[in-house]
Amino acid sequence: MLNYLEILDRANTGPYLAEENWDLEKVAMTAKRLVKKYKLEWNKEELVTDDAALSEAIFNAGYELAVTLGSYSRTTERVIEISQDEIDMGIRNMPQNVVMGEGKDVRNLYARRLKDERAPLFFGGSPGTPIPERFFQANVMSYMQEPLIDLATCGTLVEVDGREVRTGNPIEIVSTRRELQYMRQGLKRVGRAGMGMLAAQSSVSELGDLAAAHPDYLRPCDSHLVPMLNELKMDHRNISRAVNSLEYGMVNASLPCVIVGGLGGGPAGFGGGQCRFLFDREHHLPCGLSHPAPHSHAPHRDFHPRCALGDQCDRAGLCPSCTNRYRRGYLSEVRCRHEGTAL
Question: Rounded to two decimals, what is the model's pTM?
Answer without folding.
Answer: 0.76
